[in-house]
Amino acid sequence: MIKVGITGGIGSGKTTVAHIFEVLNIPVYYADIEAKKIMNQDENLKQQIILQFGEQSYINGKLNKPYLAAEVFSNKKNTELINNMVHPATITNANNWMNTQTTLYAIKEAALIFEAKAEKHLDLIIGVTAPLNLRIKRVMLRDKLSEQEVLARMQKQMNETEKMNLCDFVINNDENELLIPQVVALHQKIIQNIERLHN
Question: What DSSP string describes 4-43?
């Protein structure tokens, strides 16, 4: 089974692309959603987070997302701290999930594949890109943030061009080029490559 990653900067539309692959019956692991579950369920990880960021990190045993986001996005050191705690647990969880899938390939959707050094666990990586102004607009609408807040978050991520250069395939989500035909063509290409390897 081939392990495929989907990545892209904030607001690129990588989750939308992942949903299209799901329509094509390809299972998808959403790293961000699963990471939040792990942060709520893994007692060892919870203790580490409380130790670093204080008791306010959890309310009645549940992750206090607004508080932690404010702490984490406030400086680079805190971002690195939380990533170093959460990424290894999420990578292990994703690998275990991937190993249970029975399709020709499965997908892990994650913003920080390269930053978390998770690419070594994957066979192929798809990048999703979009123009900066469109990404800013999408995130402002989705997360009810100001332009400054969005830019602050973007600055903490790897440069978009650099990230796309590291990917095996790139999908353009600029709202001019149709998304579904790009995904379908890539799906067919991956299937053909897998079948070629098996023959």
Answer: EEEE--TTS-HHHHHHHHHHTT--EEEHHHHHHHHHHH-H
Question: CATH: 3.10.450.50, 3.50.50.60, 1.10.1040.10, 3.40.50.300. Which one for 2-27+101-198?
Answer: 3.40.50.300
Q: What is the pTM of this model?
A: 0.90
Our CA dihedral for 189, 121, 14, 129, rounded to 10 degrees, sits at -80
Domain ranges in the chain? 2-27+101-198, 40-96
Q: Mind listing the pLDDT tens digit for each residue in 87-134?
A: 999 999 999 999 999 999 999 999 999 999 999 999 999 999 999 999
Q: Which residues in the chain come in under a pLDDT of 70?
A: none
